[in-house]
Write a structure and sequence with these properties.
The structure holds 4 protein chains of 4 kinds. Chain B is of the alpha/beta class. Chain B contains 9 helices and 14 strands. Chain B has a 6-stranded parallel β-sheet, with helices on both faces. Chain B is globular, with a radius of gyration of 20 Å. The longest helix of chain D has 16 residues. Classes of the chains: A mainly alpha, B alpha/beta, C mainly alpha, D alpha/beta. Chains A and C meet through helix 3, helix 4, helix 9 and helix 11 of A and helix 6, helix 7, helix 13, helix 15 and helix 16 of C. Bound molecules: adenosine-5'-triphosphate (2 copies) and magnesium ion (2 copies).
Chain lengths: 301, 340, 361, 507
């Protein structure tokens, strides 16, 4: 066991949690405004691909990151228009974005790089810098969480965001422009999730590959629900997922059965998911969603 | 009109990739390079010459993406009487067996698979089965890894826990143990779904964890996820101008991916094998049956080139060459985990 | 025809008008992308849509591809009718497929009259159990079904991969798949029944089962008291409770039925097609099922239509990939995404007609 | 101050406002009266930008105003307290009040300033409320104060109040009117919507009367009478009395002993309730909403989770305490819920489907083997009978329940429950949001059911309704029964005192 619980585990946890935090905190803005965001996966892929492609051409991760943010914002804007303007079912529209971004990066990389799903590798010096194995985006993830707490509870925008997510009619009656706040919430979610995606492609790795989010968008969504839609608990939930993942990585090939054989990798890989179910059922229980989550605000005018 | 570019006067070749797709930087990519070379004389990037002449063929490709789309893709070519249909990957074996029976006049080739007549013994006449002894190549890089490792701890990162990947792992481990029976080999897998081939982040974490436990040479057989191992060793940095940790590439020559950090690559000459079978069809010399590519004839092996010449010690190369000789001579039998 | 019929079908027909416009719009946008990539969109459309209806391969494969999507679409739809989002069909169908194979291997010597129904029941039952778990967790602890179904997907895949790898694989088989099931567990291919349809096409009786399942789900939801209770719970849990319906029970029942329907994919895959469990066989059927259900307005008839649409795209995607220069099958993914997005936001196509002069002067 | 000219508004087939003209003089209190559904709320919501009129114009201070959203209205100095409160329950009082007009900068919300400002305002208008309490912990009366403070916080010059007194006790109403007068004296303008004539006469300067979406009269309070207003409102002479013979109670049908109920959070909702209802009598329960009436009826109907309930309930001598809703229905208990949208109907279901809710598992809803299949003919026959006997008027037979007007929805629910047939009827707010014709119909049917020997427990927030229908009247306060009065003789002051928890005596 001592071989598992080391300082390396702490760093590994941070690295693995980073993309989750960005995506989950992003999702928080959207969901706090009342718009379900199952598109985090697609938004991450949009960010990951754009960051890698642009960094490859521009030779600068910073420009890549800016481009990723714009791609995320744009994609989220599409989602927002569908859900807010045209009253699309939020789960369906989000699923559509996810499907779209399984195909779009592949088609684009085919056109740009003559490759059917990935970008070329990017030299190390053009990647997002890291100190002692911890990326600057990991540090920023913490900052973004705290900033989100501040925005949510200490600024007029946050007050409006929360009100719109709980009871849009009341917010409307108070003179808040509900739709605008929701657009803002969804677009911010796209921006942050895209940063999480950029971390995957030009922070943690050095290229984009097909479907590289590998379900992290859904885990982020779970973390958001786990964290009861509050910034700091959500971040902690992401860290928990990251920790579970890190432990399984450290455990693979270390944990032994009584017979002395390795615990089959399939069981090790199951651990984070089983833990989630147990914790959710046993310790967290019901988490109360924002009152108007998933309810479009289209009233008789 | 469909297939407007079809030109029956030329040899038509259709290739059906494995689920991973032609971009896996692994055996699909190598097969793609082989057919592209036959079509254009260039590598898939369209710029670099592949060193062989183009063969004037019409080339069509499909990435089925799902197991159920393989058969219709293969049949789409067969219905149009293509001259050669190449299936990439052992998983296409059972399907090609059926399709090849329905179209006895069409020639087929399968990479990594073997197809028999209905009696289950005679190799099928219209199918060329191109098989590679990956375990033997893996054995050699295992020897090199063990000879290079200062910590006597090695890493192996596989994509999924499936028979083919175990074949690499087992050969690698046996090669390493032949040098030092007590050497430690940490064997890890990225995931349990197809996403495991495209998760370089996780591949990097696994490699870093192995490095943390002392591994200083990591053999990555995980498609794109394996590239995470390259990032990990690069991040581990250098000491006196020499990398502190090394990675071993797989399938294609990956020595140039991170020069200085790639100890060697366990190559599998799928590209040559594919080019050659196309050429045989063009020249009229196609023969069905087994085409085994082992250490003999350099169907599998390891690469020493300008990128890694200074990284591999002469003793390591000597030991690997000795092992090669013995395997070819049958003095050493490497366990084939896929046959277990 | 009683007035009860108007509960389901007539609104559906009315509903389908705008989704159709949306689908056409999605095709136009995808065509534009193809044009930009430098290929001929008309060629692509022929390959994509035309080849899906050639006889026998086009039609045969299209229906074969539609089969699992009908099952998962129905699964998601039934859960949705109860107000639940089942993102776990993927895990449920893996467990079910493995269970069908497992029973088919263990009891391989039984005659078909017994073995086939037992294997089918194993698939349905195991899917129902795997789907029922998040139902129970929600009813008992209030934990969110979306999280739990996502988690159970990962667990299911890992679990069946373990059993296949370590216990049911044929030694020496390079493919991660189980041993074959007994002959008795083979479901007849339609080629052995329908004249002119070659037997090599994997379309099998499971497709007939899928169509029957659509009918049964329709009857169940709209013609039985149990379906009534599920729908009432989904539409208004407060009123359902008032009407003496146990919301918790309905959650568990609906999730179990949903899982059972998803599990029927295992019948198509294992009993009808491969005759063994094959690791990684599902092409995201569970997730596509969400799109299919919602596209089909959570109605069995709509699910059938939507599944066929997706199957057409899948069948055509292969042809597009093979016989165009630069367009890959990924265009199909884009097209599916666009179709789902546009159909979801089909209000876009309605609002255009609204008169402008509405505001206070 | 405010003028609506030719405002027309249509909701689908309903013409809610039909060329309305309303003029509100500055510095006055203007009453807008009319029956349920007359279009009062709609007209004022248009003035507040909550709805957009189909045609017509709004003038504020003599100038045509382009009011498209509440945001615009607020900018013009208009404030509104809605019939259904517009508050965000998990947020605090202060957060609700400043929402949309936050003190401080965009980067920093100055809650201290906000709280201080709210304290000052509540002192000035004697609207005591804790700025830091979450809304969900407040009583309805307190919530209304928050709504008022919200409007005052924005310095509204024109205050629109939509039925503000419905949730207040008579004593609170008096206090509230004092506040309104104070506002008027400060130069503010007030529009108050109500259909209680006594209140109109007590508080207003001018009156606009609406009926069926049209303005049917503009009156000066000093020059009119209750009778005249009432005649205009209803369009005929009114007679809000229920003709009923004296009750002839039989044996005890419902017996409740020491019933305690907690909320999901463990807080007490009912404290030691004991009561009896006999066959053939109507026992009414009066009280300010939120004092446990809802919990009482829901618990008796079997809708409260058992873990939250202690005590004993018997119906016709059978202990039903541990029974669920279906078993109680089988035992003869019918329930007309207070909120037909939340409980009584599935709005997206057809009339026929709604007609079998709660009896969907037995004849005539099901037929055939095992009683699993719904019987279309049986259900249709039942639905047709219900439509006929209870005068339900659907625009089309096949439409969902959503398409019915409120009164017709209520008649559907009542018809369904009455044809069980019940031996005990639990009925809550039977005529809420229902037009006068339907009110009379519903009242007659309830009395008829009593005369047929059914026991009736009635909750109504309308004091007039409770006194007119009941044979005995209980008053609830704070989860307890504060007292019993004789509805024929008690004055509204007496009842009001019990409602506030004062003067509590037996039982
Ligand atoms: N949002 C809406 N959608 C559809 N119909 C509506 C809507 N709001 C009001 N109506 C209809 O418009 C008519 C007028 O309603 P309104 O609420 O203005 O009446 P009211 O005079 O305020 O009645 P009450 O005294 O019950 O509050 C009613 O028939 C009502 O059913
Ligand atoms: N869509 C939005 N996106 C981001 N922040 C917003 C948004 N809407 C409002 N805010 C924040 O809330 C603050 C107040 O917004 P706004 O300008 O709407 O206030 P207001 O007092 O209603 O102004 P006015 O009455 O002049 O329109 C802004 O400074 C801004 O920071
Ligand atoms: Mg192509
Ligand atoms: Mg009103």
């Amino acid at each position: 066991m001592s071989e598992i619980f080391t300082l390396a585990l702490v760093f590994s946890t941070i690295r693995l949690a980073t993309p989750l935090v960005w995506a989950a905190i992003g999702g928080l803005y959207s969901e706090r405004s009342g718009v379900i965001n199952v598109a985090l996966e697609g938004l991450m892929l949009a960010g990951a691909f754009t960051a890698a492609a642009v960094t490859f051409y521009a030779g600068s991760w910073f420009i890549g990151l800016i481009a990723a943010v714009m791609a995320g914002a744009l994609t989220a804007a599409v989602l927002a228009v569908a859900c807010i303007r045209f009253g699309a079912n939020e789960v369906v529209a989000g699923t559509a974005i996810n499907i779209l971004f399984l195909g779009l990066p592949a088609v684009l990389s085919g056109a740009l790089f003559l490759s059917s799903g990935s970008t070329p590798q990017i030299p190390q010096e053009n990647l997002i810098p890291a100190f002692a194995d911890v990326s600057v985006l990991s540090v920023l993830a913490l900052a973004v969480t705290l900033a989100t707490w501040y925005v949510l509870y200490r600024t007029p925008f946050g007050l409006r965001l929360r009100a719109v997510g709980e009871n849009p009619e009341a917010a409307d009656a108070a003179g808040v422009r509900v739709q605008r706040i929701r657009y803002a919430g969804v677009i911010i979610s796209g921006i942050l999730a895209a940063v999480g995606g950029a971390y995957l492609s030009v922070g943690q790795s050095s290229l984009f590959t097909r479907n590289m989010a590998a379900g992290r968008g859904f885990i982020a969504l779970a973390a958001l629900i786990f964290g009861k839609w509050r910034p700091v608990p959500t971040m902690l939930a992401c860290l928990l997922f990251g920790f579970a993942d890190a432990v399984t990585i450290q455990m693979q090939g270390v944990a032994k059965l009584p017979s002395g054989e390795d615990v089959p990798v399939q069981f090790v890989q199951m651990i984070p998911y089983v833990v989630t179910i147990v914790v959710l059922a046993g310790f967290i229980g019901q988490s109360r969603a924002p009152g108007a989550l998933g309810v479009p605000y289209v009233k008789e005018r | 009109a469909p297939g407007a570019a079809d030109d029956p006067s030329r040899v038509e070749v259709g290739i059906v990739f494995d689920i991973g797709g032609k971009d896996d930087r692994s055996f699909n990519a190598a097969a793609w390079a082989g057919v592209k070379c036959a079509e254009t004389g260039f590598l898939p990037d369209g710029r670099t010459s592949c060193g062989r002449p183009p063969l004037g063929i019409v080339l069509r490709d499909v990435e089925p993406g799902t197991p159920t789309s393989i058969e219709p893709a293969m049949r789409a070519f067969a219905e149009r009487h293509y001259d050669l249909i190449i299936g990439v990957g052992f998983a296409q074996g059972p399907i090609m067996e059926v399709v090849a029976r329905d179209y006895p006049d069409v020639r087929f080739a399968i990479i990594d698979g073997v197809i028999f007549e209905d009696d289950g013994k005679t190799p099928k006449k219209n199918v060329a089965s191109l098989v590679f002894n990956e375990h033997e190549g893996s054995y050699l890089v295992g020897v090199i890894a063990a000879k290079t490792s200062r910590t006597q701890t090695l890493g192996f990162v596989g994509g999924m826990d499936i028979p083919l990947i175990r074949r690499f792992a087992k050969g690698y481990e046996e090669g390493a143990r032949s040098v030092n029976p007590d050497i430690r080999v940490i064997e890890n897998y990225v995931g349990v779904t197809d996403a495991a081939w495209n998760n370089p982040g996780k591949g990097k974490e696994l490699s870093m964890a192995q490095i943390g436990r002392g591994a200083d040479v990591i053999f990555a057989a995980a498609g794109n996820s394996g590239l995470g191992a390259f990032d990990a060793v690069e991040q581990a940095g250098t000491e006196n101008g020499r990398a502190r940790r090394f990675v071993i590439g797989v399938d294609s020559n990956q020595n140039g991916v991170k020069p200085g950090f790639v100890l060697t690559s366990m190559i599998k000459r799928v590209d040559t094998a594919v080019y050659d079978i196309v050429k045989k069809v063009v020249d009229g010399g196609f023969t069905g049956g087994f085409h085994v590519f082992g250490l003999e004839g350099d169907g599998v092996g390891y690469v020493v080139d300008e990128y890694n010449r200074d990284l591999v010690s002469p003793e390591a190369i000597a030991a690997a060459e000795e092992a090669r000789t013995k395997i070819v001579a049958g003095e050493i039998t490497v366990t084939d985990a896929m046959a277990q | 025809m009683t007035r009860l019929d108007s509960w389901g079908l007539t609104p559906l027909l009315r509903e389908l008008r705008f989704p159709l416009v949306a689908v056409v719009a999605a095709f136009l946008v995808a065509g534009l992308i193809v044009l930009i990539l430098g290929d001929n969109p008309l060629d692509m459309y022929w390959l994509l849509v035309g080849t899906a209806f050639t006889w026998p391969d086009g039609i045969g494969y299209t229906l074969f591809y539609a089969t699992p999507l009908v099952f998962t679409g129905l699964a998601v739809a039934v859960a949705f009718r109860c107000g639940l989002l089942n993102i776990g069909a993927e895990g449920q169908l893996y467990v079910a497929a493995f269970a069908a194979a497992w029973v088919g291997i263990e009891l391989a010597d039984l005659p078909g009259v017994f073995l086939l129904p037992i294997c089918a029941a194993a698939a349905i039952l195991s899917g129902a159990i795997w789907g029922g778990i998040p139902g129970v967790l929600k009813a008992r602890f209030g934990s969110h079904e979306v999280i739990n179904t996502i988690m159970l997907n990962f667990i299911a895949v890992a679990l069946v991969s373990y059993f296949t790898q370590y216990h049911y694989k044929v030694p020496g088989d390079p493919i991660l798949q189980t041993a074959p099931v007994g002959e008795g567990a083979h479901l007849a291919r339609l080629g052995s029944i329908v004249p002119g349809l070659p037997e090599r096409i994997p379309l099998n009786l499971a497709f007939v089962l899928a169509v029957v399942a659509c009918g049964l789900v329709y009857v169940f939801l709209w013609k039985t008291k149990w379906g009534y209770e599920i729908r009432a719970t989904g539409e208004n849990p407060g009123a359902a409770e008032y009407g003496g319906i146990s919301v918790r029970t309905q959650i568990v029942v609906a999730m179990a039925i949903s899982g059972g329907l998803a599990g029927m994919v295992g019948i198509n895959e294992v009993l009808g097609y491969r005759h063994r469990y094959y690791d990684g066989f599902s092409d995201n059927y569970g997730f596509t099922g969400i799109a299919v259900a919602l596209l089909g307005r959570n109605h069995p008839a709509g699910v059938l239509v939507a599944a066929l649409l997706f199957a057409v795209l899948q069948r055509g995607g292969v042809q597009v990939d093979a016989f165009t220069a630069d367009v890959s099958k990924d265009i199909v993914q884009i097209l599916q995404g666009l179709v789902v997005l546009f159909v979801a936001a089909e209000a876009m196509f309605r609002f255009r007609i609204r008169p402008a002069a509405e505001r206070v002067a | 101050m405010l003028e609506l000219r030719g405002i027309t508004k249509r909701f689908g087939r309903v013409l809610a406002n039909d060329h309305i003209d309303i003029r509100v003089a500055p510095g006055s209190i203007h009453a807008l009266v009319g029956e349920n559904g007359a279009g009062k709320s709609t007209a004022m919501r248009i003035a507040y930008g909550f709805y957009t009129a189909d045609s017509g114009e709004i003038l504020v201070n003599g100038r045509v105003a382009d009011i498209r959203t509440p945001h615009d209205a607020i900018a013009l100095g208009i404030g509104m307290v809605h019939q259904h409160f517009m508050l965000v329950p998990p947020m605090t009082v202060a957060e609700n009040i400043v929402l949309g007009a936050e003190p401080g900068t965009a980067a920093s919300l100055d809650m201290k300033a906000a709280i201080a400002g709210i304290r000052a305002l509540s002192d000035e208008f004697r609207l005591a409320v804790d700025p830091e309490a979450p809304i969900e912990t407040l009583s309805v009366g307190q919530q209304q104060r928050v709504e008022l403070l919200k409007a005052l916080h924005r310095r509204a010059r024109l205050l629109i109040l939509d039925e503000p007194t419905a949730v207040l006790t008579p004593q609170e109403v008096a206090e509230f009117f004092a506040i309104l007068r104070r506002m008027r004296d400060q130069g503010r303008t007030v529009v108050i919507i109500t259909h209680k004539l006594s209140e109109v006469l007590a508080i207003s300067d001018d009156i606009t009367v609406m009926r069926d979406g049209r303005v049917v009269g503009v009156l000066s309070t000093r020059e009119t009478s209750a009778a005249e207003i009432a005649r205009l409102m209803v369009g005929r002479e009114v007679l809000l009395r229920v003709d009923k013979a004296p009750a002839t109670p039989g044996g005890v049908r419902l017996q409740v002993r020491d019933l305690n109920v907690t909320g999901p959070d463990g807080s007490p909702r009912l404290r030691g309730i004991s009561l009896d209802v006999r066959a053939g009598e109507i026992v009414g329960i009066a009280g300010v909403e939120g004092n446990g009436q809802t919990e009482l009826i829901e618990t008796l109907a079997g809708l409260t989770p058992r873990a939250q309930v202690t005590g004993r309930v018997t119906v016709g001598g059978r202990d039903v305490t541990r029974m669920n809703a279906r078993e109680r229905r089988e035992a003869g208990v019918a329930h007309i819920p207070e909120d037909r949208h939340r409980r009584g109907l599935v709005l997206s279901f057809s009339l026929a489907e709604n007609a079998i809710l709660g009896v969907h598992y037995r004849r005539p809803a099901v037929a055939g083997a095992g009683g699993v299949m719904l019987d279309g003919h049986g259900i249709d026959a039942r639905t047709d009978a219900l439509i006929r006997d209870f005068d339900v008027r659907p625009p089309q037979r096949a439409l969902p329940a959503r398409a019915l007007s409120g009164g017709n929805q209520q008649k559907l629910v009542i018809g369904r429950e009455f044809s069980l047939p019940p031996t005990l009827l639990l009925v809550s707010q039977p005529t809420r949001g229902v037009d006068i014709g339907a009110i009379e119909f519903i009242h007659r049917r309830i009395v008829a059911l009593r005369d047929a020997g059914c026991a009736v427990l009635l909750v109504s927030a309308e004091l007039e309704e409770a006194t007119a229908l009941s044979d005995r009247l209980l008053v609830m306060h704070d989860g307890r029964i504060a007292g019993e009065v004789d509805p024929a003789r008690a004055t509204s002051e007496q009842i009001g005192l019990l409602m506030t928890g004062g003067g509590g005596q037996t039982p």
